Every structure is written in structure tokens, then in C-alpha cells.
Amino acid sequence: MRGPRTTRVVAPAVLAALLALTGCSGEEAPDVEVAEVGLATVSEVVEAPGTVTARATGSVSAPAAGTVAVLRVEDGQRVRAGAELLRIDSPDAEAALREARAADEDAASAGQVDLPGTDLGAEQDAADAAAETAFARARRTAALVPDGPARAQALAAVDAARAQYDAARAQARDAARRFDAGLASLGEALSSLGQAQRVQTRAALAAAERTVDALVVRAPVGGVVSLGARAGGDAPAGDLGDVAADLPADLQGAAGALLGGGGGGGDAVEGQVAVGSPVTAGQELLTVTDVSALSLTAQVDETDVLLVRPGVRASVELDAVPGASYGAVVQSVDVQPTTSAVGGVTYAVRLALGPGEDGDGARAPRPRPGMSAVVGLEVRRAEDAVAVPASAVFQDGADRAVWVADGGAAERRVVRVGAEGEEAVQVVEGLRAGERVVVSGADRVQEGQELP
Prior knowledge:
This protein is an alpha+beta fold. The chain contains seven helices and 20 strands. The chain folds into three domains: 6-44 and 382-444, Beta Barrel (conserved putative lor/sdh protein from methanococcus maripaludis s2 fold); 48-54 and 289-380, Efflux pump adaptor protein, beta barrel domain (Elongation Factor Tu (Ef-tu), domain 3); 63-282, no CATH class.
């Protein structure tokens, strides 16, 4: 099954003018009609389904397990980007911060690590294996954060910590090689390994600090607040207790606070949040939607998308506002396709949505994000063009052709067409204004047939 296809239109006044020139050819061919070629405005339109979208949408999630201590916004309230929305009380996150700070201070004061032997290579191998597991698990944990700036920051922090550890590891291995070669002391080698350990404690401390700072939840974008989340929420999925258990000891406390204690991941409260509501890490609490500017995403069939480009104008009809028409302009066309459920291939076309008018010319209501629409993209427009009714043009092998009444006889003539309206077609080569062509019954005309 194919997707949306091209719909081609011509202005009603132009169509009336073309048809007014139509006449019967005479008794010899009562089913054949001819009309004079004229000038007209022809518009070629591609129709596609679309959806109204907001300028930006930001979901706000709990950074750690706890309870809502302060709620500063109401449902439907407008807020600025960065405004405080709520505060979460998380004893686990606070305790994890204290533990991480103490571990980092101990590592800093020790200056080196104590190893039960001098096989530095084996010890470094064990440390590297533990670090590989830790960083892999840390990335998995960060990926559980709902999509958006928070997830990007969490993943970036893991990558930065990994880069720091890799640098410290290289230094430690170099020190171990120097020790084995008799070029460095055991103290120097142990100090290098201690520095690698310090990278881990600093990463744990930074993660704990970010979690505590995030307990003051702020608006990711300016817009309208919608309290609550979809049924089922966006809480982290999977056996996260096992993830925390696999982390190094220095990171387990912070991970436990981040993921939520007591295995409460399945107890996320659905519906609107309120003061005193329990929350789990990653649970979606509210959404902020910026509706200061609306856009539209249309799904254009692969057979038509090559005609669509930025700057193309469109008319939009919404199911929610019958009889109204809105203006829109194409901003971009996706290069990657989307395969629909029925197997058709479409491309997302993004448009800036303008104001609309109802059938009486009055200003139409402002749409809301998520509303469905039919988008008419004017991909080609020709004004004062040589035009004929669409019924005059027929396919003859690989050519497009018309029957011209030349001296009273039918003459097949190959033409090149431009914009193709539903009722009229622009002819860019092969016809002149004033010539007469068959506009009805072309399939019953033969070369040389008598025409008036």
C-alpha cells in the first residue's frame, strides 16, 4: 500500500475559463470536444498527513529516590527556562555524597595505595578489569536517564572520567614497567597506582555532587507546565540493584542513591506529583512545553519528496478546526526515510506553522501540539502559463502528447509539461496560446481525423 500521493489543483476561475472555450467538434465525432489553449495559473500540490509540534518540549525526571519536599508550580503555569520547579528530599543522595567525599579525602591523604606484593602488572590488570566493568555499568546507568540534557550530561561525565582514568592507567603502567626494569622505585609505582585510584574517587564525588545539586529541579525550557507523566512513567527499567552491586565500593553509595533504595523502581507514583509524593530515580515528574512558536511535521511519500524543498509554501487543514486554513513554510526535509506500518516509505518534512483563517475570514483558533493535519505543499506554481485541461494530455509510450486541431484535422503533437494541476496542466513546450486541442475523447481520436 502506498503512502500519500500528489494532488494537483488549479484555481476554479482558471478552470471555468478553460472550459468556457470548450465546444463540440460536430456530428462526425459527437464524443470529442475541443478547446482553445489559453494562459492560466497552475498550481501543483502534494498532500501529506501531518502533526502539530511545539517549539520545544522538556521532560523533568527525578535525579534520585526520595520525596517531593517543595512544589513551586501548578499545572498549566508558565515558567521561564531555569526556573525552580520543585525540590526533592533524598537522604540516600545526601549520605552518598558524604561517603564519596570521605573516600576522596582518604585517597588524597594516603597519596598511594598498599598492595600485598610487588606484582604490579597483575595488580594493574585487576584494577583495569574492575574499571572496565565499572565504566560499562556507569554508562548503562546514565543511559537510563530520560532523553534530554540530563542524559547527555551524565554520559559526558562518564566519558570524561573514563578519559582521566585511561591517562592515569597509562602513567601507572609506565611506572610499573620502569620498576620492573629497575629504573623506578616501588614507591613511585605505587604512587602512580594511587593516582589512578584517585581518579575513581573524584569521579564518584563528582557524580554524588551532581545528584545532590539536581535535587533542586529546574525547568529545561521556558513554557507551560504539565504535571504528571504517562501511565507507567519513565522510571528506569531492568534489574538496577545488580548494576549497583557490580560497581566498585567507592561508587556503590552514589549509585544506590541514584537508582533508589529498597528496590522501589516498580513503585513509581503515576499521576500528578504533590508535596510528599515518593519518587524514584528517573521517574518522569512533569513536562514543560514551549508553545511560543508552533511547527508541523508532515510525512511525504517517497514518490513526491524530491519536489519538496525549503521555502515551499503550504496550506494546512486541521481535523480539530473544520473549514479553517493555516499557512506554513517548509524549513527542512529529512534525509533519512521512515517506513510506515503498511510498508510505505515516507520522509519527514518540517514546516513553520503560521496563523489561520476560518471560512468567514475570521482568525482561526491557535492549534495545540499533537493535533493532526492535512498539509498541501505547493511544490510548483506557474503564472500566466500556457495551459490546457488535464484531460487533453495523454500518455503515448514514453511521451506526453495532445491532439491539435490543425486545419480541421487531428494532429498528434508531443508536448513537455511543467506544473500539473488536478484540472489543468502547464505546457512548457509544444503548444502556443490560441491553438485548439482535443480536451475530451482523446482516446477516440485518430491521426488525420476531421475536427472543426
